Task: structure prediction
Amino acid sequence: MTSNELNFFHTKIHLKVEAHPPDFNSRGLCVKRVGLFRGATTCLIENYCSYNPSLTNHIPTPIMTNNELESRGTFERVLSWSFHIKSEESWKSAIVSITNDGKLLAGSEVLIDELQRCNIQILFDKYCVLIERKVYIQGPKTDFIEFIKVLSSWQSLGREGFSSKWHPAMSITEQGKVEGNQLLVCRFKVFAPLPFKSKHIKIAGGPAVPMYPLKTPDATLQEDWFYVMGHLKSDGILNLLHEGDGSLLYSVDVSQLFTSEIIQIDHSMFQNSNTLFVGFIDELRRQQFPNEYPFLSKQRLVRESFLKEQDSKNITRLLIQFPLHIDLEDWFVTLKAFAKREHYYLQHNPDQKLRSSKHVTLEVTEAKFSPTALPSSDSNSEGPGLYAELSFWGATWCRTAIVKSRTNPFWKENFKLECPCSTESARILVKKCSFKNEAFSQNDVILGESRVDLTQSGKSTDKRLIIGSSNLEIGSLDTTLTVGEIRILPHNAYKIFESMLRSLPPKDLQEMVITLQSSSNDLETLSSILLDSFQSLGIETELFAALRETAMKPLDSMTRQNRVNAKTTSPNSLNTVFRGNSALTKCLEMYFLRVGHEYLEKVIGPFVQRISDKNIDCEVDPRAGGGDAVAKTNLGHLTDYVNELWELMYSTTNDLPRQIKDQLTFLRKDVENSVEPDDIKTPLNALSAFIFLRFMCPALLNPKLFFLAKEHQTGRTQRTLMLVAKILMMMANRGKFSEYKEPYMVGLNTFLEEHDQMVIDYFDKLTGRKMDFSERILDMSDVVSRLSVEVPPAILSELPTNPYLIDKYHSLVQLIHCLNETRSLKKSSSAKHISSEPQMLQIDDVDFGSQEFLSSLLESSSSDLYDTNLSSFLRQNVTFQDLLEQAAIVEVKSSKLCELFNKPELPSDFTAGGWSEFEREQFSSGIVDKKGHLGHINEKLKECRPLEDVLQKLLLQTSPSFDSLASTPTVTAKPEKRLNPITRLFRKKKT
Result:
């Protein structure tokens, strides 16, 4: 053994390569495979490299040669490898190779079977802590340099699976596509650290426990809610100004965030639907940057000036609460426009981008605890206050109401969330209140938790709760989970389908609705898809017209049958035609709630709160225990409540949104045309079935479900609201209570008779049959002018609509999927294939437009020119069958792209020139931090150097420098000589 062979042992550089982000087995243990390589220069795979200083004079300049570019990511050299770095005898010589499918071999032994997205770290210390398998390889320095170059290219390739193809896009400010005069200004409340230098900040008050705690080493940081003036500038900078003197308090660079880091917080967190989360989510970035996250440390993310105060305090998140929901909509859309967009694509074909979203619907029904699970020392006879939280990314995003129970808390609450596809699991925590059993607190005790798998679509129930770390089963949690992932093509891929949908004749639209409704097993989901798709296109009126026409057919049939049978009165079925569930009733119910929620907030919400606060007994049934005298008194209380609500409804007909009144007008006219001319009752009952049965009364019966109350109503309040809703429905139907069914309600018949004509007048005012001279008294936000921020169509297509925040293309993809399911059921044996020769468009199902005309059409940069060409290209009479064919074309392309995205990326996917360019880009863009982590990101990070620069400076270090690194430092040694060479490289020079 020569002195040189011994020398590298003391002065080595290691290269650590991890196969891909750690996987977790069923027990939650982190599993990694680690290999080490050394070179005379040396490298380590999952991994190390050692360095032989005797060859420093022969180190070539680390540039990409033609031979290296032609190798297409492969490597084959005779190197030394070992499982141990401490023993020279353990080293073995073998042919170490990287195959064209990404395997790392030592001879025939597979060291790593997938190098895509591997973690690479150049280690500069003699002893390293690694997990499991270690392999060391030694070889000449020239081979070491080439080995790093090849590995740096493999590191940037996506491994098997869709999520590994995730890539961030530049923000709109980096593209320079925002006009200078585009901005937003609003006064809102924020939850942030109190500025030290501003003495006149007024605390606004709000929830004491934020849903996402601020992660900062500053223990003296004090946070609270306070009002500011927000000013969003055209460069993506959000300035938070003092509302008194206009001085700058904080500055936020929105362009550093991803779109998934701007989140509308669920109403259950703050009892407010107008709150946004804006900030870095470390756990989410770790999922999206699995191999770069060690490289992008938390401190480095914070240092990138997300939130700056004049005293340079670093903050990573901000909570903003707006006064109006329209303000939230404006800011939510605009902030997302300035953030970095997120796409999935293959690097050899970056133009074929996909957008993906995961929608999670979780219903938490109840928990069942064993008798010994909860402590019996609780003095409250009803039991402790219990609630459940849904947590992921290290934060809580929604929670149930507090319910007092010992063994069986019942919540029945539904949550809907959207998260990136990389989110694989969540936790449901069941907690016990520690403060009066009625308020949330940081000190609340976790009784148990359940893990929820978000990778599989479908429903799941009876999740088991495991208490603490002792793995004791304390009960079960009944939940219903639905997870849906949608892959969305670029917006131009849906232009033809959109135009067809807009041009579909009424009869074909009716055929589509009937076909979808008859083939669907989930009417509510189908209705939601139809409403979102048509409303996002601005053609919801056409949808409702088709749905009404379909619903009128049985009404027409019953009317004709009555004529044949010579009946003078309508059968009872005429009055109940809209009481059941259909696509029309569900779509209008969702639509009324969407456009009329603010009206419910200002009419029903305060009314429910007054009943809850007063807690007056309104039980009118003497059998309930109060007797006739008490029941008579309570009848007066109940009548007062009903009269109060009715007067408020009657006087605010001009405040009810115009969209609701328009649909009621169309409905009344269609029903009148379907019944006998002298039938006045049926049209009015149709109106009451929507405005009362499906809009007002559900909000009264369950205000918590409609975000009108903080807690579920129980006891007297619940009973009073139920009686009020029952009386309102009787008023709407112009009926009377029966002595045989509910004799204790007969006393209200006089009240009902007195208001019969008012109810008819109410319907007449809503449907334009009578002039409405009522003043607008509710200060509704629909009269407020809305700001429109102009953004490029490609970016606008990825943003939710304003208003109502509907993801248009997400809805269209769902509609296309429903149409294809219908088509497959409808397809006869004579037409088995979807796209052999579509007669109308003749578009290739893979290339989506092989004809030259269609290709130029899809690539047109002008939307106006595009729409004109498209209109002339499509036939005037589009049919439902044409729409089905086009839906099949779009879905085939999407499914084939997804198949490609699920495969690992390989150098063979590139053209010869494409791979050469890719390899050069990866090597030139590689950067190394102080700890030797190698990554490829577009961020400008402090304390990082280009890979090329690091290799040149490190490998050209003289032997004494490396000898001093390995030797034991003495007291007399200078600090510079005790420094690691990489530390010396990054050390700043003193002026």
The longest helix spans residues 583-614. The radius of gyration is 34 Å. The chain has a mean pLDDT of 78.
